[in-house]
Structure formats: C-alpha cells, structure tokens
C-alpha cells in the first residue's frame, strides 16, 4: 500500500461533501455537487481529467432521451453489469439529498453512450417503481444479486426525516434511522417488495455492503437510536426461484465496529477496508483485507500504510473509492490554507503497480460513511467523493472545452454571503432555499437608509408575500436596525379629495321689450 499526497486545483469548490464517483472504463466522473448546476455544466456531471499533477473538469452531456438527474448527495450507488462480456456496465443511483435538502425516492440508471476527446454523453433513465417503494433516504446501500439466471437489486439501511405527523417546528428536519427492512427491486417489471427479518433489529446507516452472486455481507454502520456502531456481520442470502423470492439473514462472528469505512476492490474476491471511525471522536487507522469465497467471508488485518502526522493527528477525515484499488482520502486544512473549505488530499493505492491493470470485477461493493454531511456535523462520508490532482492517473484528453470555474459568477464577491446584520445566520456552506423564488442564492433586499445597503430577506423575517410586494411596489424599505429612524415602509398617507365649488348660476340680464308700453315722460327724456 502506497500513500501519495496530491494537490488540489484552484477551481475545486464544486467538489463538496456528498458528491459521487462513477468509473466508466477507467475514466472517472462525478456528479452530485452541493448546489444546483450552473450554465457551464447544466447536467452537473463532470469528467475528471487528471494530468501532470493537475485536475481539469470537463462538462458531460446527456442524450436527448435522458431524464433530468438532480445533483443528489449521499445516494446509494452500485454498478450493474451485463450478462455478456460485450455489455457495458451501468450505474444504479437511488435516493440522496437534493440541494433543497429534500430526500429522493427515485431510482436512476446511468450508462455511457459515447466518449470522445471533446465530448462525453450519458443516458440517464428514471425507473418507475410499484409495490413497497422504499421511502426517500440517504446513507444507505444498494447491491445487485444474481440467482438462477435472474438479477435483482437489494436496498438496505439509511436515514430519513421523521414522519410528517411527528414533526414540530423545532424538529422539522430531524432525521431518524429507517426501519431495518430489506427491499428487493425487480428492474424488469418495476416491482418492489420489502422483507422484515428478525435478525435485523436496528436500523443502520453509513455501513459497508459487499455482494457476490446471491449473497450480500453487511459490515459496520451507525445506529442513531442507540448511538452505537454495530460489531455484527450480517449475511443476506437471496434466492430467486420461479415463484416468490426468498430472503434469509444470518449473523456471523468476526464483524468490525466501524462506521464511515471505505471499501475498494483489489481482485476478483479480494477487497480492502480503509478508514472510518470506531467511536465519535476516534478514527480507525487499521486496514483490513476482506476475502469472499462461495459461502464464507474472511476478514484479516493487513499492514497499514505509513500515515502522515497530519492524518494521525487530525480529528476528522473522509474519503471515497476511486476504483481499481485506489482510495481518495482527505483531511481538513483548518487554518493552514487561505480558502476556508480547503482540504489536504491523499491517494492510497492498495494494489502494486504490476497488479494495476484494467479488469472487469463481477463483485460489487457499496459503502456509506459518516453520520452527516460536512454542513451538518461529521464530514466523513464515503459519498464525499473529492477528486483532485495526481500524477499517476492520467488520461490522454485534449484541453478543449475544459470547465473553468472562473467563468462562473464568484458568489463570494457578489455580496450574497455577507453578514448583513448582527443576527445574520446565512452561511454559504449550510444555506438552503427558504423562499419559493430562491434557487442557489439567498433573496436580498435594499435598505434605503443613507447610501443604502443590502440585507437578507430571511434575516429580516419577511414573509414571502411581503417580499413579493416589495419587489413589485415602488416603495422604500428600511431594515430592522433602521426602521425606527426612517419609516418608509408604511401605509401611504390618506389624501383628502378636493372639494369642488359648485358653480353659481348666471343671473339673467334684463332686456327691454319694445312691445311693452312705456310712459311718455320716459320717451320724452330719451329723445331730448
């Protein structure tokens, strides 16, 4: 085992905890960025070109018949391989968190359509499910089993939000362990069936699962209810006869009490278990070799790499499986780097150079790590695929159409993430949309005090209707700190209607009627 430190590129902020790695024919892709995709890569899927100790990101595309794939964080992913050697493998993606912190219950199948030096195209299809559809969740695993010439997917574990009927304002986004049910998913007919097994008593999340043929081994994991890491080793056996499937569970000795562990496959029946936590505040620096045979599993301790002092003394670490026997590990950079979310990264190679050749491995693994994402608590998750520069893995890809994050709008300089007031709690790492009009930036409003300054609408406790009114109406707004000095947001003064003076009627002029008899004396004076 060799440990190599790699340097992170400057435009790596899109790679945040919760992203997922997909390995297609030795080419590594990732999806599931923390925010919503931007115009430079609307699919949110990138090809990672690692060359000359530098990582470049090239946007990938979807075919016209593809469905929309949201950037899901902490989903369950596994490879689905065809029955013949000519069939290319696909990836199954289930569950995960959206940028709005909604939990997905959908299943997607992603396959590689074409790849050239300038463009990579995927096809993404959403599978319609019926029956006992598993609820939206994250931190779970999915595997594919093969029995009697048929295949099915098996979903187990994870966490979900508490039921709506039990939610309160204070605990609206609280999560709980999902019930320890085993779900069988038949992709051919789109049917889901759940099984409750007496051997599985507690829900698990961020565990490790390894599948071979018709058997799945579940190792480790964390239980929120008991706040424990299970030392049990479970063996699930799935039989797929012509009739109804049969699922059985056996508890085996020799398990490992660990969560957030990472598993990478180094051979047809050999795996390496790396990292994880053996308690909330104690990392697990021991590595193990897992060997699967037809009906048994063997777990033995192996020689660990020469961990650096930074890895030994850091409180947290995280990582993911890069495929082909390589694991990416990261530790927080703390205050050693200028960028607040910067980390140090290492690539751990579990195979020798002579063994590092491309091979199709029929065994599947799925590992989940940690208890929460970096924005919530412990940032160690197997779903946190951080992929950065390394000298060994290089792909002969042109630099044309390379994604450059500098082309995107720098949100740190536009003022959306400022501290607008003393009670401001808007943080770029933990913010989620609050208003229906928000997408990837918080709504702001201009305070008209003095020269004017911008404040977050959420920090001002503005309702959505009031925010829409202020955006449409031509009125001045003053924030909570200046509203006492200037009362610009108020009901317009009542204007009294003008009183119209009634017009005086015109007086009739007297006219002389020549027909009226007049006195002679008057006529005499008139003509004299």
UniProtKB/TrEMBL annotation:
Residues 359-378 are annotated as: Disordered. The keyword Ligase does not apply. PANTHER family: V D J RECOMBINATION-ACTIVATING PROTEIN 2 (PTHR10960), V(D)J RECOMBINATION-ACTIVATING PROTEIN 2 (PTHR10960:SF0). Residues 415-492 form the Recombination activating protein 2 PHD domain. Gene3D superfamilies: Kelch-type beta propeller, Rag2 PHD finger. Zn(2+) binds at residues 420, 424, 447, 453, 456, 459, 479, 482. It is found in: Nucleus. Its main location: nucleus. GO terms for molecular function: sequence-specific DNA binding; zinc ion binding. This is V(D)J recombination-activating protein 2. It comes from the Eukaryota. It comes from Chauna torquata.
């Amino acid at each position: 085992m060799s440990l190599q430190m790699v340097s992170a590129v400057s435009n790596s902020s899109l790679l945040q905890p919760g992203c997922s790695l997909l390995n297609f024919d030795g080419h590594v892709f990732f999806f599931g960025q923390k925010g919503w995709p931007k115009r430079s890569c609307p699919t949110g899927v990138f090809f990672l070109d690692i060359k000359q100790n530098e990582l470049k990101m090239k946007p990938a595309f979807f075919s016209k018949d593809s469905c929309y794939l949201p950037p899901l964080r902490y989903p369950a992913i596994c490879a689905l391989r065809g029955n013949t050697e000519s069939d290319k493998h696909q990836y199954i993606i289930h569950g995960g968190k959206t940028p709005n912190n909604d939990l997905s219950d959908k299943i997607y199948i992603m396959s590689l359509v074409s790849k050239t030096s300038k463009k990579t195209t995927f096809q993404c299809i959403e599978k319609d499910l019926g029956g006992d559809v598993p609820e939206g969740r994250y931190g779970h695993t999915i595997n594919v089993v093969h029995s009697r010439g048929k295949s099915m997917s098996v979903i187990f574990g994870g966490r979900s939000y508490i039921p709506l009927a039990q939610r309160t304002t204070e605990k609206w986004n609280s999560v709980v362990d999902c019930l320890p049910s085993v779900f069988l998913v038949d992709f051919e007919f789109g049917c889901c069936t759940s099984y409750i097994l007496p051997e599985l008593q507690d829900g698990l999340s961020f565990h490790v699962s390894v599948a071979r043929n018709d058997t799945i081994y579940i190792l480790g994991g964390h239980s929120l209810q008991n706040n424990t890491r299970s030392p049990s080793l479970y063996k699930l056996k799935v039989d797929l006869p012509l009739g109804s499937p049969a699922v059985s569970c056996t508890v085996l000795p020799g398990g490992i009490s660990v969560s957030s562990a990472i598993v990478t496959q180094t051979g047809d029946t050999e795996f390496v278990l790396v990292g994880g936590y053996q308690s909330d505040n104690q990392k697990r620096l021991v590595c193990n070799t897992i060997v699967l045979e037809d009906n048994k599993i063997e777990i033995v301790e192996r020689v660990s790499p020469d961990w650096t002092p930074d890895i030994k003394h850091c409180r947290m670490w995280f990582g993911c499986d890069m495929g082909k026997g390589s694991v990416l590990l990261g530790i927080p950079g703390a205050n050693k780097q200028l960028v607040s979310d910067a980390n140090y990264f290492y690539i751990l190679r579990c195979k020798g150079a002579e063994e590092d050749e491309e091979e199709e491995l029929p065994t599947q693994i799925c590992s989940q790590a940690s208890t929460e994402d970096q924005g919530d608590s412990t940032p160690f998750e197997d779903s946190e695929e951080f992929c950065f520069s390394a000298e060994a893995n290089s792909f002969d890809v042109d630099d044309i159409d390379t994604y450059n994050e500098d082309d995107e709008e720098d949100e740190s300089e536009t003022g959306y993430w400022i501290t607008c007031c003393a009670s401001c709690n808007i943080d770029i790492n933990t913010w989620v949309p609050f208003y229906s009009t928000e997408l990837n930036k918080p709504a702001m409003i201009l305070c008209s005090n003095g020269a004017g300054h911008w404040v977050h609408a959420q920090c001002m406790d503005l309702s959505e209707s009031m925010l829409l009114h202020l955006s449409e109406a031509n009125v001045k707004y003053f924030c909570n700190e200046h509203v006492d000095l200037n009362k610009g947001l108020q009901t317009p003064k009542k204007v009294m209607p003008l009183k119209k003076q009634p017009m005086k009627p015109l007086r009739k002029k007297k006219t002389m009627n020549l027909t009226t008899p007049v006195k002679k004396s008057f006529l005499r004076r008139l003509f004299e």
